[in-house]
Design brief:
heterodimer, A: alpha/beta, Rossmann fold, 3 domains, B: two-stranded antiparallel sheet, 2 strands, about 70% helix, globular
Chain lengths: ~500, ~325
C-alpha cells in the first residue's frame, strides 16, 4: 500500500526540504556525520536507526533547536539557517513530539491558536478561532472533535490530532512525527494511519520516525537509515524487507547476537526450597555456578518479586534459601550484598545509578557502601573493572548521566563486579539499550557465567531470554509453571506463562 | 587507579570570584598591600568557613541545617556563664560545647531520618527552640565572662617561622578544611554525595543511608560548636552573636556552586564561597558601603548563585531579551 505514492512516476516529485551533509557534534563527540535527507511533498518518509543513531538530533536540527556545525538546509530551493524553533515554524516545518505540548485546561481551539490568537476590538475573537479550527479539522476528516472541548477530556489519539492541527494552522508543510504510536492503544494506531495518509494526500511531507518496522512498512514510501550518526541509505520501501532494514541499521546480521552456551554448570550456588511470601509461593529451584537461568512470565507474575525476595527487600516468609549449600536468611540489601548477591534492577535511573556522580564513584559505590575497611578503600583495579565491562566514556570522572543507556548499564554491572558476587540477578538488563550494546552485554553476562557466577536473568523480551538462558523458569500467577530448556520456542514459554499448558517439570 | 588532583565540578567559578575580590581588596585598602591584611581576613572568615563546611555536608546529602546560627549563640552564652572568667574552666567547657553540638546534630538527624520530617522543618524548629532557650536562660543579657585562655583560640596567634604571627583560628580553619577534603575523598564521603544524588541507589547498593545522613547533621553541629568557640573569642559574648549565620553559611555554600538538594559540589568550593563572602563584605566596607546593605547583598548573591547553578554559562542567553521560544509548535 502507498508504496509508489510521490516517489517515481511521470510527474517529478516536489522537494520541500533538503538536508545536505548535516554535521553536528556535542562536546567534541560527533552525533551527526554528514546526513542527507530529501523530503517530497505528499510522501511519508520513514527515518529509522538504532537508539543513538542520531534520529532525534536530526529532528532537532530540522526543528531549529540545534544549529548544525556544517551542512545546508534547503527549504523550497532556498537555503535557510534556523537560529530558533520559531524560524523553522515560519518555514513551515513542525515537529510532533511524543510528549504533547498542549495546555490541558484550555479548549481545542485555544490550544491551536495559542500565542497567535485572532483579535477583534482588543479581545480574543473566539468565534473566528473556533471556526478556523473547525475548518482545519474538517479538512483532515476529523469531525469527531469539537473546537470548544477542553483538551483534558480528549483521548491521547485525539490530543495528537489537536497537536497536528495546531501545526497545520501555523501553515506547516512538513510534519516530523517522533514515535507517534508510542502512546497509542492498538485500535488508535489504525486511526493514526488514516490521518497520516490523509495528510499525505493533501500534499504534506511527513517524516515518520519509528522503531516499529510494521508501521514503517505500512505507511512509508521511502526509508532513510541512519547508523552511528551517518547516512546509510535511502531507498523506496517497496525494494526492501524488514530483515534488510534491520541489517542496514545494525550493520551486521543478527544471528550472532547471542553468545554460544559454552559453560558447564558447576555446584549449586543458590537454592530455593519451597520459598514463598505474599506475592510468590512454593518456589523450588537451583541456580548453579556457570549457569544463566532465565525467569519468564507476564507482568505481575512474580518474576521481579522473586528477585526482591532473594534480595531481602520483601523477604520470603516460608521455605528456605541456601547459598552454596548453607541455609541463609537475607534481611535486606546490605546483607544480600555481603552474602555475595548482586542485583541489577529494572529501573536503571531510579535504582541503579547516582546520575550526577562520576563513572568512578558509581562503579565503586557498592564496595564503598557495603564493605568495610580495607576492602572498601582498595580501588586499584578500577581500570581493569571498567575495561572488563567495556564502558566507553571520556574518562572515569565523567558523570554517568552523559553516557548512553548501554554504557550506563555497563557501569551498573561494573558496580556489582567490584564486589565479585557469587549470584547475580539481572532484571531487564538490556532495556533502553541499542542493539550493539545489547550484544556486548550478552557477551559479558556469558563471560561472567563462564567465570563461575550463577546468573538469574529476568526479561520481558522473549527472544533475549530464550537466546541467553541455559534453562528457563516460567512463572504464572506467583508460582512456577514449568521449566524449559534453553532455546525453547516462544509458544512453549507463552503457553506456560499464560497458564494454557500444564507445567512440564516443577 | 590513582586520581590525580583535579577541581571538582563548579569549583572554578567561585575561585575566580574569590581571586577578583582579593585583587579588588589590594586596590581598595592599604592594609591589603602586605600578607598581614589577608591573614586578618582569613582570621575574620574562619568561623564562617567552618560553618560553611558543616553546612556543606548537610546540603550535599540533600538537606538543610538552619539551626547552626542559634546553636552558635546558645553555645557562646552558655560558655560565658559556665567559664565565668576562670581559666580552670576552659578545658571542660570546650569539651562540653563540642558535645552539645554533636547532640544537637544527633537530634536534628534522628528526627529527619527516623520521623521523616523534612530537615528544613526540623532545623527550623531547632532554631526556634534554641533561641527560646537562650532567652529564657539569659533573660536577654548574657551573664558571666570568658577566660583569657578560652578567648585565645579566636583571638590569639602563635609565632611561626616565615609568616610571623599565625592566628590560632587560621590554623583551626586549615585543619577543618583539610580534614573535610580528606573525608570527601574517602569512600564514606563519596557515598554521602551519592545519597544526595539518589538515596535509593545507595540503599540498594547496601549502604546505610540513614546513618550517612545522621553523620552529616552531627558534623554540622560539631563544626557549629567549633565556629562558636572561634566567634566567642573573636567577637565577644552577646545574645546576637550567631544571628543570621545559618543563612550566611547557606549563601556561602551556594556561592560555592553546591547544588541545593544535594549530589553535587565540592567542599573546597564551599569554603571558597565563605571566604569570598567575607572578602566581599570587607571590600564593601572599604568602599564605604553601609554595613546595613550586607544582608541585601547576601540576598542578591544567593538568588544569583542558584540561578547560575541552574543555567550555568547559559544564564546570559536566558536573560537576553529575545529569548528563543521553547521547542513547541
Amino acid at each position: 500500500m502507498a508504496v509508489t505514492h510521490g516517489t517515481s512516476g511521470a510527474d517529478d516529485p516536489v522537494a520541500v526540504v533538503r538536508l545536505e551533509g548535516i554535521e553536528k557534534s556535542f562536546f567534541g563527540v560527533p552525533v551527526l556525520r554528514g546526513v542527507d535527507l530529501l523530503l517530497h511533498a505528499g510522501e511519508v518518509h520513514a527515518l529509522v536507526g538504532e537508539n543513538g543513531a542520531g534520529k532525534s538530533t536530526l529532528l532537532k536540527v530540522l526543528a531549529g533547536v540545534h544549529r548544525p556545525d556544517s551542512g545546508r538546509i534547503v527549504v523550497r530551493d532556498e537555503e535557510v539557517s534556523f537560529t530558533a524553533p520559531r524560524d523553522a515554524q515560519a518555514a513551515g516545518i513542525a515537529i510532533i513530539h511524543q510528549e504533547f505540548t498542549l495546555l490541558e485546561h484550555r479548549t481545542v481551539a485555544e490550544n491551536v491558536f495559542l500565542g497567535r490568537e485572532p483579535v477583534r476590538r482588543g479581545q480574543v475573537d473566539r468565534r473566528a478561532m473556533e471556526t478556523q479550527t473547525r475548518q482545519l479539522l474538517d479538512w483532515l476528516g476529523e469531525d469527531g472533535i469539537e473546537p470548544g472541548t477542553e483538551v483534558a477530556r480528549l483521548s491521547v489519539a485525539r490530543k495528537q490530532v489537536v497537536e497536528i492541527v495546531k501545526a497545520l494552522s501555523a501553515d506547516a508543510k512538513v510534519l516530523a512525527m517522533d514515535e507517534p504510536t508510542a502512546a497509542l492503544a492498538d485500535n488508535e494506531v489504525e486511526l493514526l494511519y488514516g490521518l497520516v495518509r490523509r495528510l499525505r494526500d493533501r500534499g504534506i511531507a511527513i517524516l515518520y520516525v519509528s522503531h516499529r518496522m510494521r508501521e514503517v512498512f505500512d505507511l512509508s514510501s521511502r526509508i532513510t537509515v541512519l547508523k552511528d550518526g551517518a547516512f546509510v541509505t535511502c531507498v523506496p520501501t517497496a525494494d526492501l524487507d524488514t530483515d534488510q532494514v534491520v541489517r542496514h541499521m545494525v550493520g551486521r546480521p543478527l544471528e550472532a547476537l547471542y553468545p554460544e552456551r559454552t559453560s558447564v554448570p558447576g555446584a549449586v550456588r543458590i537454592a530455593l526450597r519451597g520459598a514463598g511470601n505474599e506475592r510468590v509461593r512454593n518456589l523450588t529451584f537451583d541456580v548453579r555456578a556457570g549457569e544463566i537461568v532465565g525467569l519468564a512470565g507476564l507482568q505481575g507474575s512474580g518474576r521481579s518479586a522473586i528477585a526482591r525476595a532473594i534480595w531481602g527487600v520483601e523477604p520470603f516468609t516460608t521455605g528456605t534459601v541456601e547459598l552454596d549449600g548453607v541455609p541463609t536468611r537475607v534481611t535486606g540489601p546490605r546483607t544480600a550484598v555481603r552474602k555475595g548477591i548482586g542485583y541489577v534492577t529494572e529501573d536503571r535511573k531510579g535504582e541503579g545509578l547516582a546520575l550526577r556522580q562520576s563513572v568512578r564513584d558509581n562503579t565503586l559505590l557498592v564496595r564503598r557502601a557495603a564493605c568495610r575497611g580495607a576492602a572498601a578503600r582498595q580501588a586499584a583495579d578500577l581500570t581493569r573493572l571498567l575495561g572488563a565491562v567495556g564502558v566507553v566514556a571520556r574518562g572515569p570522572h565523567q558523570e554517568v548521566r552523559y553516557l548512553s543507556g548501554g554504557n550506563q548499564q555497563k557501569v551498573v554491572l561494573g558496580k556489582w563486579l567490584a564486589v565479585r558476587p557469587r549470584v547475580l540477578i539481572v532484571d531487564e538488563p538490556t532495556r533502553g539499550v541499542d542493539v550493539g550494546a545489547k550484544q556486548t552485554l550478552y557477551r559479558l553476562l556469558r563471560d561472567l557465567a563462564d567465570d563461575g557466577m550463577a546468573i538469574l536473568m529476568i526479561s520481558s523480551e522473549l527472544p533475549e531470554l530464550i537466546g541467553m538462558s541455559d534453562r528457563i523458569l516460567v512463572m504464572h500467577e506467583g508460582a512456577l509453571a514449568g521449566v524449559l530448556p534453553g532455546g525453547a520456542d516462544e509458544e512453549a514459554v507463552m503457553g506456560l506463562a499464560t497458564g494454557h499448558q500444564p507445567g512440564a517439570v516443577a | 587507579m590513582r586520581a590525580r588532583p583535579r577541581l571538582a565540578d563548579g569549583t572554578g567559578p567561585v575561585l575566580v570570584v574569590l581571586l577578583i575580590l582579593l585583587v579588588g581588596l589590594a586596590f581598595a585598602g592599604p592594609a591589603y598591600a602586605e600578607p598581614g591584611g589577608y591573614l586578618a581576613l582569613l582570621k575574620r572568615a574562619a568561623p564562617l568557613v567552618v560553618l560553611a563546611v558543616g553546612q556543606y555536608f548537610v546540603i550535599v546529602s540533600g538537606g538543610f541545617d538552619l539551626s547552626v546560627g542559634s546553636l552558635v549563640t546558645a553555645e557562646v552564652v552558655v560558655a560565658a556563664r559556665l567559664v565565668n572568667g576562670d581559666d580552670a574552666n576552659t578545658g571542660w567547657v570546650i569539651a562540653l560545647l563540642l558535645g552539645c553540638g554533636i547532640l544537637v546534630g544527633l537530634v536534628n538527624g534522628l528526627i529527619t531520618t527516623k520521623l521523616l520530617v523534612p530537615s528544613f522543618i526540623v532545623t527550623l524548629g531547632m532554631l526556634l527552640v534554641l533561641d527560646g532557650a537562650v532567652f529564657l536562660w539569659s533573660g536577654g543579657a548574657p551573664r558571666g565572662a570568658l577566660s583569657p585562655s578560652f578567648r585565645l583560640i579566636g583571638r590569639g596567634s602563635v609565632d611561626v617561622p616565615v609568616l610571623g604571627q599565625l592566628p590560632w583560628s587560621v590554623i583551626v580553619l586549615l585543619v577543618v578544611v583539610a580534614a573535610a577534603v580528606w573525608f570527601m575523598r574517602s569512600g564514606t564521603g563519596r557515598t554521602l554525595l551519592a545519597v544526595g544524588d539518589n538515596e535509593n541507589v545507595v540503599r540498594l547498593a547496601g549502604g546505610r543511608v540513614d546513618r550517612l545522613r545522621l553523620l552529616a547533621f552531627v558534623l554540622s553541629g560539631l563544626l557549629a560548636s567549633v565556629a562558636a568557640i572561634l566567634l566567642a573569642g573573636f567577637a565577644g559574648v552577646s545574645a546576637q552573636v550567631g544571628e543570621g549565620l545559618e543563612f550566611r553559611a547557606i549563601t556561602a555554600v551556594v556561592l560555592g556552586g553546591v547544588l541545593l538538594g544535594g549530589g553535587r559540589g565540592s567542599v573546597v568550593a564551599a569554603a571558597a564561597g565563605a571566604l569570598s563572602l567575607e572578602a566581599l563584605f570587607s571590600l564593601l566596607n572599604l568602599l564605604g558601603v553601609s554595613g546595613a546593605l550586607e544582608s541585601a547583598v547576601q540576598g542578591v548573591i544567593i538568588i544569583a548563585a542558584v540561578a547560575y547553578a541552574a543555567h550555568g554559562a547559559g544564564l546570559w542567553r536566558v536573560l537576553r531579551p529575545h529569548r528563543p521560544v521553547p521547542d513547541t509548535a
